Amino acid sequence: MYPIWHLTDPDVTREPSDPSVFYVKGWIAVESDPVERLAFEDPALKVHLPLTTRRLPDAEGAYGLPTTAFEAAGAFDLVKGRDSIFLSFRNNGADYRIVVPVRSGAVDRQGQKARKLARIAALLQCPRCRCGALRRDHGVLTCPGCCATYPAGETCYDFLADDFRDECGVVDSDLVSSNLYDGLAMNFVHAHRRGLILDCGAGRREACFENVVTLDVSADATTDVRGVAERLPFVNDCFDAVFSFAVLEHVKDPMRCAREMIRVLKPGHDYLGRPFVKCLADATRTELACCNTLIGVKPLEGERK
After folding, report:
1. What pTM did the predictor assign?
2. 126, HSE (Cβ side, Cα atoms, 13 Å)
């Protein structure tokens, strides 16, 4: 099992409380052996942005893993003008890197959503006949091939047709999963900040990003595209990375979902899949079987240096 890490600061989705100060705060949970050599890679930051560490009992109780908390604070001028800085650590004989994005100020969430939906409009295809170039008129997308129609609101494209619900066993529920992206996922969000990532089966996301397209069956405010993973409404080879967290162990046909995720993923790019922790053993086998039998794409298990 690779280490789990999470950054609570800096939070690039919110306005910083003090723009003159750069905060770094987070934690690392590991299965075995201690976290070693945790430090900034930049020698100047090692001196002027010293890290402090401590044990974190709350996270240890939640994950059942030894957890190290870390934090640092210094003048924002130390990192001004950079996209990111890097922390490195060693665990169980392997070296890992944590990407620490440099905040960019407050996020215009409404504008972010509008720009994202406009950007992906050209990537949409009819999930019924797979025809692209959907026409939009008065809040409706129309397929030029089969003439199927789908609602296109200001905040979401809705491809969850009633027959797709029945086909894929979708059941409406007020219970929508809500999780933060962990540190490894955030590494990829930052690495592909000029590209596009599909978060397949996203649920409700507390943090939203302009380069991450959320797809879910729920009509949550954070959902960009409503639909089923068995019939993704996107053209082939259009995403730089695909996430599926705690998804394949819950769908009716995981192999079909995996094929769809691989179809929309650009060749040679990144698939990051992770099952719900309580289903870890069985779901991991499911995900590996689904992905390894396709075109050689394997779930990433961690970003090593």
Report:
1. 0.83
2. 20
